[in-house]
Specification:
By secondary structure, the chain is α+β, with helices and mostly antiparallel strands. It has one domain (34-221): 2-Layer Sandwich (Peptide Methionine Sulfoxide Reductase, Chain A), CATH 3.30.1060.10. The chain has helices spanning 3-15, 51-58, 81-84, 106-117, 143-158, 186-189, 194-210, 222-225, and strands at residues 42-48, 64-72, 92-99, 125-126, 129-130, 136-140, 169-172, 176-178. The strands form 2 sheets. A 6-stranded mixed β-sheet has the order 7-6-1-3-2-8, with helices on one face. A two-stranded antiparallel sheet has the order 4-5. The model is unreliable at 1-19 (pLDDT under 50).
């Protein structure tokens, strides 16, 4: 379903007093993780449905210096919103997180991902958006990220942290391509847009309430990082 149509339906639902938004899940921290360490900034790339909300969540994670909405899983030549929205390019709407490893670990980034950023048990969809471009995925760029991601999924599945099995794919990062400028800082720039109100702002509120030690009340912005 097109987001524009969904926004209209959500607006109508609002007038009837109905509410949307996925429930967050309280989960344990990863048993396997990096140790905080001073050094150069690092990056993580994850995909969890529409990048507007995922970016909006990670803009509040402590230790994060920038978060870009974009595309991963496909090639550069067709990494544009109109083409990716067709669902035939292998891309997933993703976010690239630039973070300080002395302040936040890769495992903590994944804890936010699984707990509040999206529902990792939904296959090729999130909320009102359907298609492989909205799949749940972690794109690793080194062995450590791969091992931490795979171990955490196994840990959460073994603990039955979710009512269904996690379907998140763990794939090597072949490239990340930033989305168009109008997609960046979208949640922060459009807090009253019905899609954001129903699907994404609840994620930010869940983050603040469920993982307060990781939550930064002052959001980093793409505009501010330039």
């Amino acid at each position: 379903m097109k987001r524009t149509l969904m926004a209209a339906l959500l607006c109508a639902a609002s007038s009837l007093g109905l509410h949307a938004g996925e429930a967050a899940v309280k989960i344990p921290a990863p048993a396997m993780d990096d140790k905080p360490a001073a050094g150069t900034l690092r990056t993580a790339v994850v995909a969890g449905g529409c990048f507007w909300g995922v970016q909006g969540v990670y803009q509040h994670l402590k230790g994060v210096k920038n978060v870009l909405s974009g595309y991963a899983g496909g090639g550069r030549s067709d990494a544009d919103y109109r083409t990716v929205s067709g669902g035939d390019t292998r891309h997933a709407e993703s976010v690239q997180i630039v973070y300080d490893p002395a302040q936040v670990t890769y495992g903590q980034i994944l804890q936010v991902f699984f707990s509040v950023a999206h529902d990792p048990t939904q296959l090729n969809r999130q909320g009102p958006d359907t298609g492989t471009q909205y799949r749940s995925a972690i794109f690793y760029d080194n062995d450590s990220q791969q091992k931490i991601a795979q171990a955490y999924i196994a840990q959460l599945d073994a603990a039955k942290a979710f009512p269904r099995a996690i379907v998140t794919k763990v794939d090597p990062l072949a490239g990340f391509y930033a989305a168009e400028a109008y997609h960046q800082d979208y949640l922060l720039n459009h807090p009253s847009q019905p899609y954001i109100v129903f699907n994404d702002l609840p994620k930010v509120r869940n983050f603040q309430s469920m993982l307060p030690a990781l939550y930064n009340p002052r959001a980093v912005t793409v505009a501010g990082a330039k």
